[in-house]
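Researcher: Please translate sequence to structure tokens.
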Amino acid sequence: MPHREIVTDDQPGKGFELPLRLLAGFQFLGGIVFAPFAWVLIFTPLGIFFPKYQYDLRDVVLSIMGAPLAITGYFVWANWFLYAVRGRFFRNWGVAVQLISLMNHLGWLVCFPSIRQQSFFAFLETAPEIAAWLLFNILVSMMLGLYFLDKSRTTYDF
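Model: Translation complete:
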């Protein structure tokens, strides 16, 4: 019996590549707005060792949470660029990149209202652009993660 073609993450989105690459390019360009803000957060945990920069426990927790989110955000952001330009993710990890993107944007969805000292719904009302961008990226990472997961399985007809 003939075997099915094995599709792995080295060719994600085969047959559906152009719309996915355009979406990745859109996400990369949209992420340019958040990149300068995230750069500042990488160094904020250094302030937790100096008492004059500590305000309360919330500030310490947010600074510790913000740095890993910023670093993983840059990883996801660079991978959107790679996929838009080259059609491949870093080390062919399409599913892993989408999982990291999902966790990263869920973390920011928790972190942003805390930074602004608001409830989640007040955050949705006062910063709808940020909330919409985060929710859009969560939806995209879930859809693409499932799509690439389905395409990365090795299947045979027996």
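Researcher: Any highlights?
Model: The longest helix spans residues 57-86.
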